[in-house]
Every structure is written in structure tokens, then in C-alpha cells.
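Quick one, C-alpha cells below. Sequence please?
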């Protein structure tokens, strides 16, 4: 008698069974929608390199937040674009800054929506780097001190979570200490712990108007050639008090998401960045790929790699497409 042959196709032919046995699923509740709010803007402005994405005025950002909330997306991450940049980043921590005003308004109108704020200086400094610059160098410790003030100002405005994305060493500790000192010991910090110096961020520069005026960010963001360094970054940020960590970009970095997830027991998310969005949108616009199918596939790959949550420009679309959940 011969052994019955392995027939894996038995589990694939019936679509319902296929769904039942799918190992990973993508849910609306896994997603965080990025939102850009620009000071002095009337209405909203399309972002050329990210079709379907916009910069919003304060008022429009509130409407956008309401849409996000009504779609069942649990969170948004807010980026601010000030009317005036300077060499000190004053608008980044001003009580009346664009992000501080927007956070307060959004929280007032959408009290249940989780409002995460991106904590960085690149949108606020005239040279566009993520930290203070002296004689052509990006300074670490001076930047960390400012970043802590920025995070505190977001907390005071009503942010639910702060997310430092600057990649200065020691910033999580400085932020944690200042938050604790000022009565925000309950406020979680998502650290962009593993952030690579990626060419996939280019379209974001149109969105957040933060292109560096000289050089690039490889003096502080990670080298894409390195994997083990991701452990050192994560370990350091967790020791400094980070509650959740992000890996960024997502596409092309599944190995990193996976390894960080295996090694650390904290929640791990990933950020599907602007270039991933632009690339898929562009090919879909030409009819070369099916946007919806590719988006489910790439986002499922992130879940499969181990991401517990995904910051994605498609969050709203996925919520609409999947009506709560899809595989
Ligand atoms: C700010 C910041 C960037 C992104 C998120 N926060 C830009 C950068 O580091 O150059 C990129 C997000 C994206 O490309 O979608 N430091």
C-alpha cells in the first residue's frame, strides 16, 4: 500500500476554508494613519509625489481625524509643518505651534481617537536636519534637550503618545525624564528605534517640507546594510524607557521586523513609508499592478514578519476595502 500523497491544495480550493486557515490577517485595528497639518494653509493641498495624500489646514485636519475615527482606525500620527522655520526650532515646542493647536482641536473633537505625535526637528529647522547643526555637524545632546521640550509640549497639548523619530542617541531617556517630572509618567513613548537612512523617504519631503539643505541623514539614521545594529538600537531605547518600538521602512525590512520581534518582548510596529506608497501608486496608476491586491499583500507581509501594528498611508483605504478585516 502506498502512502497517501501530501495534498496541500485541499486547504486552498475552497475560499472559505482558505480564509479559515490563513495564518495572518490584516485588521483595521492594526493601523495608524499619518496626517500632515500645515500652518497657514487654507483647506487642503495635494502632495504631488503621494497621490491621494494631502497636507491639511487645522480645520481640515480635524475633519480628517473624524473620518479616521469613523472608519474604526484606532490612531493617527500627526506631523506639523510650521509657517516659519528657524535655526532653533522654536515652533516645534511653542505652545501655539501648529501641532500643539492641531492636537488640542483633534482631541476635543475626537476624544476617543489615539493621537500620536511625531517628535522631530526637521520640519522646524531651516536647514532641515533632525537636530541642531553647528559647523556642519548635527549635534546630539543639544538636540536631545530640545526634543524633550518638543515631546513635553505635545503632551501638554493633549497627545496620547509621543513618537521620537530623530535618531539622536539618548533622546528617549531625556523625553521620559522630562515627561515624568512634569506629571506625564502615564504617557507612552513609541520610539522609532530602528530607522534606516532610506531613499524611500523622498516623497515625505514634499509632504512635510523637511528636505535637508545640505548632506543627508546617514550621520544619524541607520545604514541599510546593518541588521544586528537594530538590536543595539532597540535595547538602548527600551532601557531608556520606550514602551513600543517601530521599524522603518517596512518593505524590504521584513527580516529586521522579524528579528526585532523575536528578540524583544515589547510591542513592535513598522512604518510603511512614503516611497513604498509612491511606488505602488505609480505602478497602479499605469495599470501595471492592482493597487488593492498589492497593498493587502505588502501589509500582510509586514504582519507575517511580526509587526503588531502598521503606520500606513493606506490605513483609510484598507479600512474601507476590508470592512474590518481581510486576509
Ligand atoms: C522625520 C520623519 C521622516 C519620516 C517620518 N518622520 C523623514 C526622514 O527621516 O527623513 C519618513 C516617513 C515617510 O517617508 O513616510 N524625521
Amino acid at each position: 500500500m502506498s502512502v497517501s500523497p501530501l495534498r496541500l491544495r485541499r486547504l486552498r480550493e475552497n475560499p472559505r476554508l482558505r480564509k479559515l486557515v490563513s495564518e495572518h490577517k490584516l485588521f483595521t485595528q492594526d493601523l495608524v494613519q499619518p496626517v500632515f497639518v500645515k500652518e497657514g494653509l487654507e483647506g487642503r493641498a495635494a502632495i504631488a509625489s503621494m497621490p491621494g495624500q494631502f497636507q491639511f489646514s487645522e480645520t481640515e485636519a480635524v475633519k480628517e481625524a473624524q473620518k479616521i475615527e469613523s472608519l474604526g482606525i484606532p490612531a493617527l500620527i500627526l506631523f506639523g509643518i510650521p509657517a516659519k522655520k528657524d535655526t532653533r526650532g522654536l515652533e516645534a515646542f511653542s505652545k501655539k505651534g501648529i501641532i500643539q493647536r492641531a492636537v488640542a482641536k483633534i482631541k476635543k473633537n475626537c476624544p476617543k481617537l489615539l493621537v500620536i505625535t511625531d517628535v522631530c526637528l526637521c520640519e522646524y529647522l531651516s536647514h532641515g536636519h533632525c537636530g541642531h547643526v553647528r559647523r556642519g555637524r548635527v549635534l546630539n545632546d543639544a538636540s536631545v534637550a530640545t526634543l524633550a521640550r518638543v515631546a513635553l509640549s505635545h503632551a501638554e497639548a493633549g497627545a496620547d503618545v509621543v513618537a521620537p523619530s530623530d535618531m539622536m542617541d539618548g533622546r528617549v531617556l531625556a523625553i521620559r525624564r522630562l515627561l515624568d517630572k512634569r506629571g506625564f509618567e502615564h504617557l507612552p513613548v513609541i520610539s522609532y528605534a530602528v530607522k534606516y537612512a532610506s531613499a524611500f523617504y523622498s516623497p515625505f519631503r514634499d509632504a512635510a517640507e523637511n528636505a535637508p539643505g545640505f548632506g543627508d541623514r546617514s550621520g544619524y539614521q541607520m545604514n541599510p546594510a546593518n541588521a544586528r545594529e537594530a538590536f543595539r538600537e532597540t535595547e538602548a531605547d527600551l532601557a531608556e524607557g520606550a514602551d513600543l518600538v517601530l521599524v522603518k521602512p517596512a518593505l524590504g525590512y521584513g527580516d529586521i521586523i522579524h528579528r526585532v520581534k523575536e528578540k524583544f518582548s515589547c510591542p513592535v510596529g513598522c512604518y510603511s513609508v512614503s516611497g513604498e506608497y509612491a511606488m505602488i501608486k505609480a505602478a497602479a496608476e499605469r495599470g501595471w499592478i492592482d493597487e488593492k491586491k498589492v497593498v493587502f499583500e505588502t501589509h500582510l507581509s509586514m504582519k507575517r514578519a511580526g509587526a503588531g501594528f502598521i503606520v500606513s498611508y493606506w490605513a483609510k483605504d484598507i479600512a474601507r476595502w476590508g470592512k474590518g478585516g481581510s486576509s
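The chain has one domain: 24-209+220-322. The radius of gyration is 20 Å.
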